[in-house]
Amino acid sequence: MPSVVSRGRGRRAVSEINMVPFIDVMLVLLIIFMVTAPMISPSLIDLPSVGKASKQPDKVIQIVIRKDESLELVAEGSTRALPSSAVAESVRKLIPQGQNTAVVISADRSVKYERVVKVMDTLQRAGIERVGLSVQLTP
Known about the structure:
Elements: E1 4-7, E2 10-13, H1 20-36, E3 59-65, E4 71-75, E5 78-82, H2 87-94, E6 101-107, H3 113-125, E7 131-133
Parallel strand pairs: 3-6, 6-7
Antiparallel strand pairs: 1-2, 3-4, 4-5
């Protein structure tokens, strides 16, 4: 309830906000943050590094996605065109049982990322475990 100030003839209400409780709360919060901030240790994320896999693949099969979104299969030194519907089946035929084989997807820069993800998803749904993306580093 606002306080009433009496001056001379009449009474009028003081409608100012009392800032003291607000300042007290802010100072307490500031002290809490200043005390707890040095105690928080920064999180470290252990990212894998390129080429440091525990076991290198015995065989590498490469799927190339061209500008026109056509697919090519590169394996054992030969290249052949590949229909979209037969990606998983063709790759499975090339992977012998028990062999550590990696499948690498290389795409042209102008290909939509959605197309690359669809090919990767098709391979993973077919049970192919080691699927990766080819990265070309520019100097």
